[in-house]
């Protein structure tokens, strides 16, 4: 139930899907990392990749999607994996032993999809246990791993193949964002006649897939002029669907999940940078001059970058 549905409207990612599929099927043991900020479409990309027939054939449908955003530590992650593998409880063994025994006995190719892995990676119990657990999984040569995660780097000391660019998945192209918008909003005549205004609105969304999808939902009932005014006055608060606050229905909630990964110094530094519309040019040189008394400045910068903020 925690696994989101595979999106039906999905434009502008064909090259990334092909790249991911080619890497997985041509690697004896694949370690694929889909990285980037919240809302960029990492989960959807992972779902599209594992839906491809070539991937299903290689692993003979032994593809296990683990929603790590509800599994905040090693113990819950192991429990979640046992549930996905449909392994019954054995009173004589711990859950760790059960999982280890399963991977030792079942040596056919398996692909684990660890979605939103930043949740256990940044857990309060620290990284020692989760890194050790991940590296033990890697020792099973028949086990491949696809991880989606906020940030520019995959977890642990593993040679991850980064999908897309070195910094992760990029926003949509203008054309792909426009196609997505019209497919969701319903190709209404008034919107089609206002393509220039639509493009202006999509540019304001930075062509981020989640933002484009949510503003397109608004366009079903609101004219484009109203949407531009709503954005001008409310910014990300208008980018939500329904009353609940969830990762896939609210841009603000998605952003907050990344902010929650920071400590107080990191949040304070982010709040200062956010007042500067173009960021800080040549920040390595200038940031120290701008904030000479800021505590743990270099560590806070590293934390912000590691969360793709």
From TrEMBL:
Pfam families: nSTAND1 (PF20703). It comes from Dendrothele bispora (strain CBS 962.96). This is Novel STAND NTPase 1 domain-containing protein. Signal peptide: none annotated. Residues 8-150 form the Novel STAND NTPase domain. It comes from the Eukaryota.
